[in-house]
Design a protein that fits this description.
This protein is an alpha/beta fold. It has a single domain, classed as UDP-N-acetylmuramoyl-L-alanine:D-glutamate ligase, CATH 3.40.1190.20. 31% of the residues lie in helices and 26% in strands. It contains 9 helices and 13 strands. Helix 1 crosses helix 7 and helix 7 packs antiparallel against helix 8. The protein is globular. The chain starts with a strand and ends with a helix. The relative contact order is 0.16.
Length: 290
């Protein structure tokens, strides 16, 4: 089957700093690296690296043609990436000596995706396909409703968190993934915890503490421990986890097995500096021994 991903495409400018800058503080970076990123891009690459078929739906400016070409090289299908008269999105990322990060986004073309591009893409989708989206593009509720009406399973990664955006998409969502902070923000905004949401499957990632899967169809909660590694850069780890979970589910693996595989992929990812360009492939993940 196919995973259709309405996702952001960014140029990531990653600065290595001794610590995350405080308000009013000026820091000297020891290193600058520029690569391919964006939560949507990271997830598409992760799906492809996990041996899944993924069609990316998005937009770049003329300055972002290199990004679409690189996605092709990573195994992502790109014929529904539109070129629009807006600069390609980009991110300024600070990574400290412990691998933690702070990110500033410029939305650019990610918020200029034409509705006709989404409609044209989903006109090719088949029952049993999955539709994935995050909070870095325009037209999220419209696309999610269109996908749901077509019988696709809708997966939503609720980041970067915005209460209004999340609540607009939740009625069309079958599978929700968010981190612990975002789960608390959603509880504050809606009054509902992960186990209370009218969504079949909810995964809450807990960083170094692993993740929790809320199977709301059977009212069960399962915890999965993280693997112990020394982090170098946490950028893209959650996106890698999401992509691997969906690719495994698309291959017919049960949720628990998919989460275990994704946990390994996320652990390996944090040992590498960078985002989409360094997401591990399935052979690397299965061979990984922390």
């Amino acid at each position: 089957m196919t995973i259709w991903n309405l996702g952001s495409i960014n140029a990531d400018h990653v600065y290595s700093v001794p610590h995350i800058p405080a308000p009013g503080e000026t820091l000297a970076a020891s290193k600058l690296a520029t690569g391919l990123g964006g939560k949507g891009t990271n997830m598409s690459v992760a799906v492809a690296r996990a041996a899944g078929r993924v069609m990316h739906i998005g937009a770049v400016g003329a300055d972002g043609r290199w990004a679409a070409q690189r996605l092709i090289e990573y195994g992502v299908e790109t014929r529904y990436i539109a070129e629009v008269p807006v600069l390609t999105g980009h991110a300024i990322i600070y990574v400290d000596a412990h691998g933690e990060n702070s990110i500033v986004l410029f939305q650019g073309a990610n918020h200029a995706i034409p509705l006709d591009t989404i409609r044209a893409a989903l006109s090719e989708a088949k029952t049993g396909d999955r539709f994935l989206l995050q909070n870095e593009t325009n037209l999220q509720p419209e696309a999610a409703q269109l996908a749901r009406d077509m019988g696709l399973t809708v997966a939503y990664a609720a980041a970067p968190f915005s209460a209004a955006s999340v609540q607009a998409v939740l009625p069309f969502t079958d599978f929700l993934i968010l981190n612990e902070v975002e789960a608390d923000q959603l509880r504050t905004a809606s009054g509902l915890g992960p186990a209370d949401l009218p969504i079949g499957d909810v995964i809450v990632t807990l960083g170094a503490d692993g993740s929790d899967w809320f199977d709301n169809k059977t009212r069960q909660r399962l915890h999965f421990d993280a693997l112990r590694v020394t982090p170098v850069d946490t950028t893209g780890a959650g996106d890698t986890f999401t992509g691997y979970v969906l690719a495994a589910l698309d291959r017919g693996q049960p949720m628990a097995q998919a989460i275990q595989l994704a946990t390994r992929a996320g652990a390996l990812m944090v040992t590498r500096p960078g985002a989409a360009d360094v997401i591990p492939d399935l052979s690397e993940v299965t061979a990984f021994r922390p």
